[in-house]
From TrEMBL:
GO cellular component term of the entry, any: extracellular space
Record GO terms (molecular function): cytokine activity; dopachrome isomerase activity; phenylpyruvate tautomerase activity
Domain of life: Eukaryota
Protein name (record): L-dopachrome isomerase
Upper lineage: Eukaryota, Viridiplantae, Streptophyta, Embryophyta, Tracheophyta
Length: 115
């Protein structure tokens, strides 16, 4: 149910992508308090992005969840995801935005229905 969608202008090879997907899945599950089996992470590398007027390494993320989000949780997740991107892709945390959505059950589809 929690879904993290990450976009970056940095090209991402398969090995690094796999590491990011695993690390981000664990981080989202642990921080939000949901099982890893519910977490989806999408990574879109090599996307044209300009941030502050330059095309230096940057990223944007959106995290959608039914519950589990709060100002303190969002802050922790922002820090953890920024750290993963810094470690794996050398994206400075000052060049990363993340938006959090707390979705209501009827607005989140799964298995041919809604939650």
């Amino acid at each position: 149910m929690p879904t993290l969608n990450l976009f970056t202008n940095v090209p991402v090879d398969a090995v690094i992508a796999s590491d990011i997907l695993k690390d981000a899945t664990k981080a989202v599950a642990k921080t939000i308090g949901k099982p890893e089996s519910y977490v989806m992470v999408l990574l879109n590398g090599g996307v044209p992005i300009a941030f502050a007027g330059t095309e230096e390494a940057a990223a944007y993320g959106e995290l959608i969840s039914i519950g589990g989000l709060s100002p303190s949780v969002n802050g922790k997740l922002s820090s953890i995801i920024a750290e993963i991107l810094q470690t794996k892709l050398s994206i400075d945390s000052s060049r990363f935005y993340i938006k959090f959505y707390d979705a209501q059950r009827p607005f989140f589809g799964f298995n041919g229905s809604t939650f």
